[in-house]
Amino acid sequence: MTPPLHSIVSRLHLKQLRLLVALGEHGSLLKASQQVALTQPGASKALQEIETTFGTPLFVRTNRGLEPNAVGHCVIRYARLIQTDLAHLRDEIVGIMRGQGGRVAAGVIMGAVPLLTDAISALVARQADLSVEIVEDTSAALLAQLDAGRLDLAICRTTISQAPQVYDSVKLQDETLAVIANVGHPLRHATPAPPIATLTKTSPHSQEQIPRDGSHDAQTTGEIAYYPHPSIAEQFEIIAA
User: Fold this and answer.
1) Using CA atoms, how far apart are residues 137 and 185, in angstroms rounded to an integer?
2) What is the pTM of this model?
3) Phi and psi of 215, rounded to 5°?
4) Considering only CA atoms, which of 61, 56, 59, 46 is closest in space to residue 11?
5) Structure confidence by residue, pLDDT tens digits, 29-81
6) Is residue 91 within 8 Å of residue 129, measured between CB atoms?
7) What is the 3-state secondary structure (H, E, C) of the chain?
8) Which domains does the chain have, with CATH numbers?
9) Key word DNA-binding present in the record (predicted)?
10) For residue range 14-37, what is the model confidence (pLDDT) as tens digits?
């Protein structure tokens, strides 16, 4: 049984994380112990304590040394992430103490990438030592990373969240969705539909009523992509953690 989080946090030490990363790199307890300045018996004891902390073996003992199992690969990956975050923390502290530098992690959805890159270019021009990490993903994924503290801010949509009110956000702009059609399609010269309850999609084989409430995804055929309405505006927001 996996121990509770508070138990893992209270028992795990940074030097043990360094040992895990070294074991992942070398696959040898001797080489890993030398890298983290431990004796081999000390490293062996530390590994036993780590496996006790997580409540499961992390490595398979083979003739070639120690090979991480599935859980071991997972733990080593997160140990590396923690080390990287600590390095970023140190860099940011140094920058703050020098009155410059610093680090910001920003998330962005694909359609808002130009907005973010323009803003970052202007910011870096004023603060050349600033370190910027950019994560491009969906709104749902970016909000999850904000919740986890992995991002400082994100340009995305809060409307997909079940609790959008928990975010501090500022509206940036509207995004207009459009109907994309083959240049030879009969609807190329059609006028926009009036605001009626449904939009009728006609294909050679069927006719389908598409709800206008936004609950229907884009419908596609070989020639044309239909959205609920060609002038729906979706809102970009900048969201702070």
Assistant:
1) 33
2) 0.51
3) -85, -10
4) 46
5) 999 999 999 999 999 999 999 999 999 999 998 888 899 999 999 999 999 99
6) no
7) CCCCHHHHHHHCCHHHHHHHHHHHHHCCHHHHHHHCCCCHHHHHHHHHHHHHHHCCCCEEEECCEEEECHHHHHHHHHHHHHHHHHHHHHHHHHHHHCCCCCEEEEEECHHHHHHHHHHHHHHHHHCCCCEEEEEECCHHHHHHHHHCCCCCEEEECCCCCCCHHHCEEEEEEEEECCCEECCCCHHHHCCCCCCCCEEEEECCCCEEEEECCCCCCCEECCCEEECCCCCCEEEEEEEEC
8) 5-89 (1.10.10.10), 99-173+236-240 (3.40.190.10), 176-231 (no CATH)
9) yes
10) 999 999 999 999 999 999 999 999
pLDDT at 239: 65
Report residue 238's pLDDT band, with 50, 70 and 90 as the boundaries: low
Listed in sequence order, the residues at least 6 apart from 192 whose beta carbon sits closer than 8 Å to its beta carbon are: 230, 231
Tokens of 156: 């995305």
pLDDT above 70: residue 83:
yes
Q: How many CB atoms lie within 10 A of CB 159?
A: 11
Q: What's the rounded Cα separation, in Å, for the pair 9 and 182?
A: 58
**Contact by Cβ (8 Å): 198, 214:** no
Rounded to 5 degrees, what angle do the CA atoms 125, 89, 163 make?
85
